[in-house]
Structure formats: C-alpha cells, structure tokens
Design goal:
alpha/beta; Rossmann fold; 2 domains; six-stranded mixed sheet; five-stranded mixed sheet; binds guanosine-5'-triphosphate; binds magnesium ion; metal-binding; G_OBG
C-alpha cells in the first residue's frame, strides 16, 4: 500500500434548514398562534481516528466532503429534520490544520477519538416560536445559519516512542530489523528506505515500545537535498531519538563531520525536536577489532563533545543492542506520557449546547412583532385554511 502522509481536503458542514412562517388563515394568526415549525440543524463534519487505517491515500483522490443541510420546517409545528453528521475516518496519528488560518485543530492520537472540524448551521426558527395575540408577523429571520466550511491539511505522524536518525547507509533499517519483528529493506546503497517503518520492541514479556525508522538525512536536507527533511515530522512525537552513526563509512567520510551535519539539519528543522533526548549509537563496530573499535568510538565521542548516553553496537550481529534497548525502556518508563491537544466528545456536546442556548436567547430578545412584509423573507410561506 502506498504511504501517503499529507493531504488537503475541503469540508463543508450543512446549512441550517429554514424555519417556516405559517398562518392558518390568510394573513391572520390562528387560535393558539402561528404554527410554522423550526428548520433542522445542518449536519456537522467530524474527523475520527480508526486504528484499522494506516494511510491518508484515499483522501488524495476524494477531496470534497459535505454534510447535508437541515430540512426546512413546515406548518402545523412540523420541525425540519436535523441532518446526519458526516464522519470522516482517518488513521490514528493524524494531525489537523486549517490551511487558511494556519490554526492547529488537533491531533487524533487514540482510536475512536473524534474532532469537530466544521459545525453544521443552526436551524431557522419557525413563527410558532413567536406567541402573540396580535395580527403581526415576526421580524425574526427564519433562514438557518450557514454551515462552516474549511480547507484542512491532514498530516499523518507516526506514533513512536523512539525515532532513528542518521545518514543514509548508517544502518538504521538494519537496527530496527535486529531489535524488532519489522523487516524493512536493507541495502548497501543510500536511500534504501523511502517511507517510514515502525517496529515494536519487546525488551521483556510485558514491556514494549515502538521505534520508527525513517529515510536517511543528508547535509542540506533542509534545503531539499536528498529526500529533504519532510520525514523529520515523524520524529516529533518520539520521546527519544537514537542517532545512528556509521563508524566506518564506505565513502571514507569522517563520522564526526557526518554527525554534526545531522545535528545541524535537526536544528534547521525544529529547535524543539533538537532538544529531545538524543543518544549516540555508533554502529558497525564489527568492522574493526574490538580494541580499535573502542578507541575509535571514544575518539569520535570526544570530538563531538559528548560524554553520556553513548552506545557502540553492531546492528548486523546484534551485538550490544540489548543494553541499549534496556536503557531506552528504563528512560521511557520514567518519562510522563506526552499530552496531546484533544477535544473530547463532552467538549463538543458542550460547545453545541452553548450554541443552542445563545440562539434561543437571541430569539427571545427578538420576540417582538412588526408589520410583516413577505419580501423580507426568503422562505416558503404557507397559508392554510
Ligand atoms: N558491517 C556492518 N554492516 C552493517 C551494519 N549495519 C548495517 N550494515 C550495512 O550497511 C548498509 C546499509 O544498511 P541500512 O540498514 O540499509 O542503512 P539505513 O541507515 O537504513 O540506510 P537508508 O535507508 O538508505 O537511510 C547495508 O549494506 C547493511 O548491511 C553493521 O552493524 N555492520
Ligand atoms: Mg533504511
């Protein structure tokens, strides 16, 4: 399946249905008052996270999503029907942004979580709302309000605890293969990995964490070199970064320069990401005799100015990977789970209620009567005998 992690869609909530101005006898208010019913509310649009989905690809082809408008009210106090809400299913990990205002609307990080993205229009009020004994019509506008319309950017961010960072060919995919059941492609050329991979690591029977392998970064990636830095967004939700450094690059480049290049790109992308705990993992130590490997790793660490959280491994031989995994698990357990901005169902209901109350109050305030002019109303007017 193709991995698509960014799409733009347009969502349109339904307009509120019109309330009806109805009189039983021509231009006269019947006993018991006018009886035009309210319209129905327009349908709202929600995005909901579904753990069974893992791509946004469907929305690349299906960009317009519209909820129905509420139906109009009718005479004899018939209220119009509220339209069904439209629920758009997206993968867990989807971040939502309003393209026009650049406002973040939320993150869907849990299965079933739902966010209101376009509110349906409020229904127009029928004239049955306006009780009066006089032969006068309501000034109240009876049209429903318009449904919200938004252009949204959806981004799928991997939900991983640990992110792998490094140059192409450093051995990131080999590492994820050695510590998890994930089997991404490994090859002796750069840019083997083109899409992110996730693996679940189980250091002990009842403990696990998720690790993300992303395409390699190169110097100048923030200016578009290589595959660019677009994949770094998948590391935004990680709590620890493992910077994989090839101690014996085949191209003869200097591991120290290589490491600085990666850190530089990280800062270019986001200072916040650069602040995350980042451990150094020297890889491919099997290419040297043990003592030489040890001396080389110490030298590189010293030149990088790092003294803590340094590991030397051979991903291919799975040597020294266990202590690393163990320490990662221990650190993760000591960290608070990050709290994401989310809107609960209750909050959505609350907002909706407040909206109703405001609209109802407005109609009370406007509850005066005036000489009625049919042309003021862009609605169907029903006269019944
Ligand atoms: N000798 C040795 N070779 C390794 C080790 N780890 C990875 N390699 C080799 O290095 C090459 C690149 O490995 P990958 O795991 O594909 O590297 P990557 O970082 O995922 O590369 P990209 O996907 O291109 O970013 C492959 O030929 C691997 O077999 C190691 O510990 N020792
Ligand atoms: Mg790879």
């Amino acid at each position: 399946m193709k991995f698509v992690d960014e799409v733009e869609i347009r969502v349109e909530a339904g307009d509120g249905g019109a309330g009806i101005v109805s009189f039983r006898r021509e231009k006269y208010i019947p006993e018991g008052g006018p009886d035009g019913g309210d319209g129905g509310d327009g349908g709202s649009v929600y995005l909901q996270a579904d753990e069974n989905l893992n791509t946004l690809i469907d929305y690349q082809f299906e960009r317009f999503h519209r909820a129905d408008r509420g139906t109009n009210g009718r005479s004899r106090n018939c209220t119009g029907k509220k339209s069904d809400d439209l629920i758009i299913m997206v993968p867990v990990g989807t971040r939502i942004m309003d393209v026009d205002t650049q406002e973040g609307l939320g993150d869907l990080t849990q299965h079933g979580q739902k966010i209101l993205v376009a509110k349906g229009g409020f229904h127009g009020l029928g004239n049955a709302r306006f009780k009066s004994s006089t032969n006068r019509a309501p000034r109240q506008k009876t049209l429903g309000t318009e449904g919200e319309v938004r252009n949204l950017k959806l981004e799928l961010l991997l939900l991983a605890d640990v992110g792998l960072l490094g140059l192409p060919n450093a051995g990131k995919s080999t590492f994820i293969r050695s510590v998890s059941a994930a089997k991404p492609k490994v090859a002796d050329y750069p840019f083997t990995t083109l899409i992110p991979n996730l693996g679940v690591v189980r250091p002990e029977a009842n403990k696990s964490f998720v690790i993300a392998d992303i395409p390699g970064l190169i110097e100048g990636a923030s200016d578009g070199a290589g595959l660019g830095i677009q994949f770094l967004k998948h590391l935004e939700r990680c709590r620890i970064l493992l910077h994989i450094i090839d101690v014996m690059p085949v191209d003869g480049s200097n591991p120290v320069d290589n490491a600085f290049a990666i850190v530089n790109e990280l800062h270019q992308y986001s200072p916040k990401l650069a602040e995350k705990p980042r451990w150094l993992v020297f890889n491919k130590i099997d290419l040297l005799p043990a003592d030489e490997a040890k001396a080389l790793c110490e030298k590189i660490a010293q030149e990088l100015g790092e003294t803590e959280n340094i590991y030397s491994i051979s991903a291919i031989n799975k040597s020294n990977t266990q202590p690393l995994i163990h320490d990662v698990m221990t650190l993760l357990e000591s960290m608070p789970k990050e709290k994401f901005v989310e809107t609960t169902d209750e909050e959505v209901e609350f907002k909706w209620d407040t909206y109703h109350q405001k609209a109802a109050k407005k109609s009370d305030d406007d509850d005066d009567w005036d000489e009625w002019n049919e042309d003021d109303y862009d609605v169907e007017v029903v006269y019944e005998r």
